[in-house]
Amino acid sequence: MKASLIVLVSLTGFISGVLQKTDGTYQFNRRCSFFHGNHHLLVDCSNRHLNRIPKCPPTVDILNLHNNSLKNIPDKAFENLHELLELDISSNKLSNISIDAFVGLHNLKRLILEDNRLDFYSYPLGVFKSLVSLVYLNIKFNGNNQFSIIPDYAILDLVKLESLEVDAYYPSGVFIFGRGLSRLPSLKRIKTGICEMSTVNNETFFNMPHLEFIDLSLCSILRYDAETLSNRRKLIYLDMSNVYFLFEYFKKFFEDIQLLKVKILKITGIVRELTELPLCFFRNLIYTGIEVLYINNNTFVVADNNIFKMCNAVPTTLKLLDFSNNLLIKFCFEIPYLLTLNLRNNTLGQYLGQNSYMDNETGISQLEMIDLSYNKIMSLSFTIFHYQPNLKIINLSHNFLSNITFDLSHNINLQLLDLSSNRIKLFEKETMDLVSSIAKNLKLTIDMTGNTLQCNCRALPFLRWMNDNKYIFLNIQSYKCVSENEAIIQLNNFPKIVQEIEKECKSYTDLITCVSVAITACGIAIATGLIYRYRWKIRYLYYLSKGKYYSYKPVDDSIHTYKYDAFISFSEIDFGFIKNCCIPQLEINSNLKLCIHNRDFMPGEEITVNITNAIHNSRKTICVISRAFLNSYYCRFEFNMARMESIYSRSGHNILLLVFYEQILPKELPLVLLELVQEQSYIEYPHDEQGNVVFWEKLKEAIA
Ligand SMILES: *[C@@H]1O[C@H](CO)[C@@H](O)[C@H](O)[C@H]1NC(C)=O
Ligand SMILES: *[C@@H]1O[C@H](CO)[C@@H](O)[C@H](O)[C@H]1NC(C)=O
Ligand SMILES: *[C@@H]1O[C@H](CO)[C@@H](O)[C@H](O)[C@H]1NC(C)=O
Ligand SMILES: *[C@@H]1O[C@H](CO)[C@@H](O)[C@H](O)[C@H]1NC(C)=O
Ligand SMILES: *[C@@H]1O[C@H](CO)[C@@H](O)[C@H](O)[C@H]1NC(C)=O
Ligand SMILES: *[C@@H]1O[C@H](CO)[C@@H](O)[C@H](O)[C@H]1NC(C)=O
Ligand SMILES: *[C@@H]1O[C@H](CO)[C@@H](O)[C@H](O)[C@H]1NC(C)=O
Ligand SMILES: *[C@@H]1O[C@H](CO)[C@@H](O)[C@H](O)[C@H]1NC(C)=O
Ligand SMILES: *[C@@H]1O[C@H](CO)[C@@H](O)[C@H](O)[C@H]1NC(C)=O
Q1: What is the rounded average pLDDT of the residues 245-252?
Q2: What GO biological process term is on the record, naming one (predicted)?
Q3: Residue ranges lining ligand 9, Cβ < 6 Å
Q4: How confident is the model at residue 553 (pLDDT cuts 50, 70, 90)?
């Protein structure tokens, strides 16, 4: 503390009460701080309510008195500050300056009196005489009346002045920058503060023949006459931002600048009626050598070269073109030499779904950066980024994209694809493959901040892939995803979250497996039930279809002739009855043709087929029922096949004749047989001669 005090005393000589503050700066007079920087001693007295100019060390280079309460600058206020280079008294309450106020400031280069109450009468004759080195004078924002203009006699003393910032308030008639300015051979730069000009014309800038830089931003100009600017041949920078022109003046303005050599042109917010870009707009700029054009914040709806291609080529010198914040629904030019194209905040979404912003007729473009953010883009045409091998940055932020459908394989220099704030939920497999193959060869990074990714089982492959390819993604820590139950999860610990989702999905998969097993089991059970229920029908149709005489059609009994009159179904044990009674009674005596399996079947595997066919080819089937019959597999089979034959081939006409060869109690009979017994007629074999005669007669009748 003490050491620094001594140093300062030796440095400044006469200032007492110096304190070193903890931030390394010094405070003196308890008001200003001062510090060294860039070989300059800077004294900062800003924001301190000062109403008197404080005493300063004579070595000060920069004195900042911004935002105090100074009302005037008295004589010799800075007399000892011979080394002062810059003096800032902006935002005070200055209304008058004494004639000798600046005496001694012969090294002063920059004087800032912005935002005070100075007017035409505040500057005594010769007030600036001492300022022989001044190159920059800022007296803008000093009042909105025509007397706020600096008088010619005051300004013409500033022989070295290069840059002037003033108000230009003249709301009626032609505004002319004063004649005094014509005496300043170095004046190159003019910038306005408060600015209202009714009319500008060839006189307005006439007194500033060497202007290189004009900034009229925020001026209000009611009328722009031809040739206002056409003679400013040295102009390289022109800022007309937010100068509101009627469209007719806009066109005049553009004709005017054809012959200039302007490199940077800012016409932000100059057109406010919906309109197309004038035909041949760019032709006006061909000879200017323009490099940067800001034509943003206007109301252009269409900007393309479709009608007059020849006259609307983007100048080859143009490197930056900013069409942001317009209302474009269509944009297309040949841009072989452009490096930066800003189309932010337009309405090109629909157009770019099918088309490109670039006319590819001239082939390859040098474009390095394209900004398509805020364009309501849902999808982009596949070829949109073709012919632009130098593209480094593609900005598609704040659109409605859900998928990458455009080709990037030609963009071998791509470094950043900004997909932030879109509607991407996940990438499909093809997209992942595409992105990783591009990212592998290039140093591509992708920003997907502000998309609501999904973290459900469907997205699992995508999340896994993202985790494996973390290095591709910018700001991955801030990504969020939405889970199955709509909870928003911050993906700040990617591997852990992926693991958790994997676990959840595993139990989910298990659940699915269980459910599907259950469903399958049910299905099998039902199928089994159905097959069991229709087992006889299935077998009947199966065997019938295998047979040689297959004809699965209901047959009309009266017309159809059968190979056999009756098929006899019986148990082997009762063969005696068949051989000794049935054949003699029915075949020999009555001339009926019977089918008896041991006699009429050829032996072989396909006995079941034979049975089915035999039943099908017989008018009736006679079952000789005995206990042995009930126990025989084949007998039961024959019985059931005959039942099926009745139902499916004879339109429900019964073909079964039951002959009870033995006395059998109802409870011994199977259910189906019992039902038939109850419904249909059946015959019991009487086993006595009298009865037998009747029996055979009845049976013959039934068969025929
Ligand atoms: C001006 O200085 C006063 C006092 O330090 C401060 O309160 C005020 O915020 C300053 N104004 C600006 C515009 O910086
Ligand atoms: C300064 O200006 C005010 C009003 O603008 C005036 O009353 C006063 O006399 C002027 N002072 C000097 C020293 O010119
Ligand atoms: C401005 O143009 C008018 C006619 O358009 C002409 O009479 C006048 O001489 C021009 N002034 C200058 C300074 O060129
Ligand atoms: C252009 O418009 C945007 C959005 O309205 C605004 O943020 C920006 O300040 C404007 N630019 C200029 C230079 O006025
Ligand atoms: C887009 O431009 C409009 C004017 O055309 C402006 O009002 C709006 O704020 C801009 N939006 C963004 C996000 O820059
Ligand atoms: C230009 O791009 C379009 C698709 O946008 C394509 O059909 C055409 O073949 C391309 N022209 C050349 C010269 O490659
Ligand atoms: C892309 O555009 C958005 C919105 O216009 C902006 O915030 C972002 O910084 C841009 N990204 C890059 C890489 O320029
Ligand atoms: C995404 O785009 C690819 C091809 O670029 C396509 O195969 C895939 O089906 C698309 N996915 C969705 C969800 O649209
Ligand atoms: C029984 O099957 C054999 C061979 O499969 C066949 O030749 C024969 O004609 C069949 N008999 C009847 C009555 O269908």
Answers
A1: 85
A2: innate immune response
A3: 600-602, 604, 606, 610, 613-614
A4: low
State pLDDT tens for residues 346-369.
999 999 999 999 988 888 999 999
For residue 596, give the CATH number of its domain. Answer: 3.40.50.10140
Please compute the mean of the pLDDT values over residues 284-297 and round it to a whole number.
94
Bridge partners for 322 per DSSP? 294, 342
* 15: confidence class by pLDDT, cuts 50, 70, 90: very low
Distance 427 CA to ligand 8 centre (A): 8
DSSP line for 275-310: EEPPTTGGGGGTTTT--EEE--SS-EEEEE-SS-TG
Residue 221 maps to which CATH number? Answer: 3.80.10.10
Q: What is the mean pLDDT of the chain?
A: 86
Retrieve residue 387's tokens. 């012919």
Query: What's the start-to-end Cα distance of the chain, in Å?
Result: 140
Average pLDDT over residues 277-291: 89
Condensed to tens digits (0 to 9), the pLDDT of residues 188-233 reads 999 999 998 899 999 999 999 999 999 999 899 999 999 999 889 9
Does any ligand 6 atom lie closer than 6 A to the CB of residue 360? yes
Per-residue DSSP letter, 561: -
The two tokens of residue 665 are 């109690």
Residue whose CB lies within 8 A of the most ligand 6 atoms, among 383, 385, 410, for a mutation test: 383
Query: Tell me, what's the pLDDT at 16?
Result: 36
Contact, 356 vs 382, CB < 8 A?
no
Residue 470 lies in a domain: no
Identify how many contiguous H helices and E strands the chain contains and give both numbers: 15, 35
As a dihedral over the C-alpha atoms of residue 283, residue 287, residue 290, residue 296, rounded to 10 degrees, the angle is -20
Q: How many structural domains compose the chain?
A: 2
Tell me how far the alpha carbon of residue 150 is from its chain's centroid.
55
Q: Which atom of ligand 2 is nearest to the CA of 121?
A: 5
What Cα–Cα distance (Å) separates residue 663 from each residue in 571, 627, 653, 686?
Answer: 15, 9, 27, 10
Asked if residue 92 is part of any domain, the answer here is yes
Residue 260: inside a domain: yes
Tokens describing residue 622: 């006679």
Structural domain containing residue 27: 16-385+395-403+417-426
User: What pLDDT does residue 4 have?
Assistant: 38
Rounded CA-CA distance 478/448 in Å is: 9
Closest-lying ligand 5 atom to the alpha carbon of residue 327: 5
Predicted confidence (pLDDT) per residue in 388-407, tens digit:
999 999 999 999 999 888 98
Q: For residue 524, which amino acid is it?
A: I
Calpha distance 132→135 (Å, rounded): 9
Does residue 383 line the site of ligand 6, with CB under 6 A? yes
Q: Which ligand is nearest to the CA of 240?
A: 4
Burial class (CB in 10 A: 0-12, 13-18, 19+), 39: exposed
Residue 6 lies in a domain: no
CA of 205 to the centre of ligand 3 (A): 12
Q: Is the C-beta atom of 296 inside 6 A of ligand 5?
A: no
Calculate mean pLDDT across residues 515-540: 87
The conformation of residue 232, written as its DSSP 8-state character, comes to: -
